[in-house]
Amino acid sequence: MQIRAAETEIRGHSTDNAPGVTGYGSVAGQSTTIEGYFSDWDEEVSHGAWTKTIAESARIMSMFNHDPGRLLGATDAGTLTLSEDVGGLLYDVDINSEDPMAMSVHAQVGRGDVRGSSVWFQVVREQWSYPNDENDLERPHRLILEGRLFETGPVTWPAFDQTTAAARSAASLETVLRTAGVRDKAKRSALAFSALTDPDSAAEQLAGLMTRNPELRDAVCQCAATNDLDATRAAPDGAPELDTPPDAGHLSATALHVARARLQLLRR
Hints:
- It contains seven helices and eleven strands.
- It has 268 residues and is an alpha+beta fold.
- Helix 5 crosses helix 6.
């Protein structure tokens, strides 16, 4: 699961006295540099990347700041409309005039205080290109060809704060592996980087590593449990569970990857 935010302008609107918010959740054809913990890469969303998910997803939501407690609309309720044009992924959400929170968001957008949008998604297909003598790339380039969309909407900080939080969590996973006895720095770094860019692949790699090394599995789980216990003590009441849409302030990538790896081990 990944979150990307963009400096896309959104606007509040009212049609027939019905308030709404519209904007681009994702911009197509523009490259943005993602600052990873171990290395940086440029990322671009291709035109048509959201066509299939718009047509096939039973429910896509719109929230303010990706907060499940601040739901604005949903496609299955007919209150969120999604489409694609040359600019990218366009959303239009009808605001409930009887919901003070939603009307507050509408007012902030209307005044121009909130001017960014973001998407919460999973990469389905992608293409990586790397710098060589035949191209002008400064760093690896990731082209997202298809994404599975879960949610899109206005955000206060149209930057990559969530990516930074994910990078810190990837660093936490690297620390767990080092503490558990994985001495190969390149292997630790590669796995942590994979955890940031492709969590499912990272979980598979971690599961395979622990299958081949039972003593490492016990050590990793013990280290992760200690870290998660500390995180739980510090987390406020109502912190989301692993399957809850990610909030940059509460997401524990270490717990997520270890839990996935444990599940895969049990299924073997």
